[in-house]
Amino acid sequence: MINYLIEVSVCLAAFYACYWFGLSKLKLLNFNRAYLLLTLVLSLGIPLLDLSLYELESGISPDIPDYISVSTGEVAAQVQSSNRINPVLLVYLTGVAITLIALLLRILSVLNTIRKYPRKKFGRVWHIYVPDDRPVSSFFKYMFIPEGLDKASFETQSILRHEEKHARDRHSLDLIFTQLISALLWFNPLIYLYTRALKLQHEYIADEAVSGKCGKKTYADLLVRHSLEQSGFSLTHSFAEHPVEKRLNMINHLNPTTMKKLRLLWSLPLTFLLTLLLGVDHQAQAQTLDVEFEVRSDLKLVKGNVRDGELGEMLSNVTIFILNSRNKELKNANNRYTGTMTNTEGNYGLGMGKSDSLIVFRKKGYESMVVPYKGQDVINVNLRKEIASGNDGND
Fold it and tell me: pLDDT for 194-208, tens place per residue?
């Protein structure tokens, strides 16, 4: 889990750097919105890929030593310790829970305002008439309008068209999505930069739609006059959303030239590179066992995970195979070992027959571990790193 979150953070940093240096100042409003949403999804998905560039080597002897048996008490102690809750994981899950609760409370606050104040429907949009100390803002198909606002004035009509653009393009759905991702990545400041950048693109889109009808100079003057207002809710869009300076610059910004549009291609090699680095299994060629990966209905499925005994991190590509109680490896008719390997998240599933067997866990750089199988449904283990052998010159 920790490794996955680290890889997600790497993807976020790379994609946001591409946006900041190549796209953020270009007037490619809808594309930038799509880019920010898509790269959020890619950042979550790329580390989940398990693309192997190699095939397992076959016909290599596992060289199982005679001293593979270990004390049952020692194995039981190691298995029990692997079931303890990782404190880092506990802190992370606590942060996720707190962030989700805070999001739920904000949504309930908006919904309570919708129920509390009078409303009137205009087409697909509902106008919610709130006290005069609140600015015009929107949340999905609901627009919050101060009761004392002169709705017939040109200024008010421009502001309402701005908020209606947010409602028509479903910008609030983007914000809910990014808030959910923020709950998963609450520890990473990049997700908050992503949310702010996406919300700014929403304002650019709405500004462009309205300023094209009423004139850029007139609209810019209107935006400056309302620049001291603040949105009533963090999940809503407000006409006077900051930073106003960037919005004024984008209103007067010219459409990008063809050469500048070529910056869009930056994201393609970046996506490929991240997929190659984080989504491809580079360790499959290091396996030294010819393992038969088969599923049989007459076997009992044993599940579990394998962790680093010191760091508590999940270990991928751990080879797992079965011995009988006399340390004789179980092979099938093709002279292959019956076993499996852990996936990228450190989890495995293994079909077991007789309960009088031993399960061997092996990974390069770690001490092999043997667990007696007595019919358990779940077996979690911790592997200890190998201690370097040899004389270092000090007695």
Answer: 999 999 888 888 888
Q: If you write DSSP's letter for every residue of 244-292 in order, what string do you get? A: HHHHHHHHTPPPPPHHHHGGGGGHHHHHHHHHHHHSEE--GGG----EE
Q: Which residues of the chain does CATH 2.60.40.1120 include?
A: 66-84+289-383
Spatial CA neighbour of 362 closest among 303, 313, 310, 321: 321
DSSP code for 331: B
Yes or no: say if 191 and 178 are a contact pair by the CB < 8 Å rule.
yes
Give the type of residue at 318.
V
228: tokens are 């001291």
Is the domain 66-84+289-383 a CATH 3.10.450.50 member?
no
pTM of the model: 0.59
β-sheet bridge partners, residue 362: 319
For strands 137-139 and 237-238, give the pairing.
antiparallel
What proportion of the chain, given as a percentage, has pLDDT over 70? 68
